[in-house]
Structures
1.
Amino acid sequence: MAQASASIRIPVSADKVWALTGGFLSLNDWLPFIKQSESQEGGRVRHLTTDDGAEITERLQTYDNAARTYSYSIDKGPFPIKDYLATLTIKEDGADGALVEWSGIFTPDGVSDAEVETLFKGIYDGGLEALKGNF
């Protein structure tokens, strides 16, 4: 099983970061390459459309508002993986700061561990930099 992770410190409270990121359907509010997030199955599934027209279907697996974290799997997407599970967590980091962590585990499908780890590390790093830009 392969894995990737990224983290970033943002100089605002964890509650402010969670207010933007904590809604499972709010990915398009802070991740620039996600143009649309459509709710399905009562909000447990998000159907995403990227700026290049790719479609991704993700399923909420766990959600803890008090701990500011959720996990999700990918049901369908353009990625060479299977058994994907990712977690987004927002933690307090000192005086008025937040530590945002985004990580995933997955099984490569037709590519090496290194290739898919590099792919998702890039997605997570780029996504967190975009998130920081909102503050």
Note: The chain has a mean pLDDT of 96.
2.
Amino acid sequence: MIDLNADKRPPMSTPPVVSPEAWQAAHGQMLEKEKAMTRARDALAAERRRMPWMAVDKGYEFIGPQGKASLLDLFEGRRQLIVYRAFFEPGVHGWPDHACIGCSLGADQVSNLAHLHARDTTLAYASRAPQADIARLKARMGWQHIPWYTITDGFDKDFDVDEWHGHNAFIRDGNCIFRTYFINGRGDEAMGTVWSYLDMTALGRQELWEDSPQGYPQSRPYKWWNWNDSYVPGASVDPEWDAVSEAGEAAFRNKKTEAS
């Protein structure tokens, strides 16, 4: 038995130590559960894409680095928008040096936004702090890549984030805006990756394998991926990456066939 309490921590009941064969068998059993969870997550995302939309009829005003901005402006010309309500304002623990500890942990998880943008989706943060304080916070914490706006009206109350953090997803049809989904509480723990953001949107990952309503934009998986500094709208797939991803897909399919 391995002594994990040598540094005088409280006694800890550990699992058994087994052979590589026994470990692989145990892992195989867990893997089946992992796959079931992944399939369930995909099914949930498919249901999200069929959620009814709520029209946003009220005009909301934010303040950004360039001055006044509407909710439509927050889309930055893209089709979808995710707004995270972060608590950074007088009365919040950490003010004025820091934002809420939980919201700050979430901001640290936000991945490079170029990949979201390639799927016509914008992520923005919103708080009630003035822009000067937001700019100072972003510089201190390394969050310059996150668009961050000041809430000036009842946006937070209207979208269920006046007392607690949360992500609201929107889609636009021209200048018409619709609320499509909302995640808060422990659901926010999973946010930060391109996949977690896209899975909460009305259009999803926009890949052919997804169960989406007819007419939704979809393309082959892997093909739209690129380095974060190399996305060019409408550009053809890099031929080398096309070959590599094709080989990878083929190998994966063969492995699944052999396993079955």
Note: Strands lie at 54-55, 61-64, 67-70, 80-85, 121-127, 148-151, 166-173, 176-184.
3.
Amino acid sequence: MADPSPADVERFIAQGLACEHLQVEGDGRHFFATIVSTEFEGTSRVARHQRVYRALGDRMREQIHALSMKTLTPAEFAAQGAPGPAATPTHHH
């Protein structure tokens, strides 16, 4: 079976998890995903990763050899520097 492309991995995740933003980079064996979902609200980092693994199902064992991920809620994603007013630093004097 051919190694999946980053676009394949994006599609696999999106099929099982409603994402506000999803970006996957990788070389066919090792991937890095930025995943933003409202489903992550109120959950720990471990629970978020488990949720992504559930979305990937058997593909995680059979096709994807390594997946690093950053899992964020929409508010966390906005706070970390997404374009817009939330990214503007404030100064207190």
Note: The chain has four helices and three strands.
